[in-house]
Amino acid sequence: MNEQLIPQWLPGILVVAVVAFPAFFFMKRNVVIRLVGACVSVIAVLLLFSVVIGHQFTFTRPQDLPLLILGVGLGWLLSTIGRALHAASSRRKSS
């Protein structure tokens, strides 16, 4: 992997993570349903973004898949940390 790709990918990974985070954090279903919700929300936002800027966006290019996977993974990781912190603070308040 080329080290110059990371600074180029970082904004895209962060955008995908921010879009995927609410589906992972707020949905009260199992992981598979939350993953589907996150993927649908990411696809919808990216397609809306491509319509606004007037550029055709594709999800089938091999160089875009690692960016999308890393972004969704980061969103899942952040939501898991957020859920754990929320549960810990809820238990502390109830004690």
Shape: elongated
How many beta-strand elements?
Answer: 0
Oligomer: single chain
- Report the end-to-end length measured between terminal Cα atoms: 49 Å
**Domain unit count:** 1
Mean pLDDT level: 86
| SSE class | mainly alpha
Description:
The structure is a single chain. The protein has 95 residues and is mainly alpha-helical. It has one domain (19-94). The protein has three helices and no strands. Helix 1 (5-26) crosses helix 2 (31-53). It is elongated. The N and C termini lie far apart (49 Å). The model has no long low-confidence stretch (mean pLDDT 86).
Question: Which keywords apply here?
Answer:
79% helix; 0% strand; 3 helices; elongated; 95 residues; mainly alpha
Layout of helices and strands:
Elements: H1 5-26, H2 31-53, H3 65-94
Task: Quickly describe the structure.
The chain is mainly α and 95 residues long.
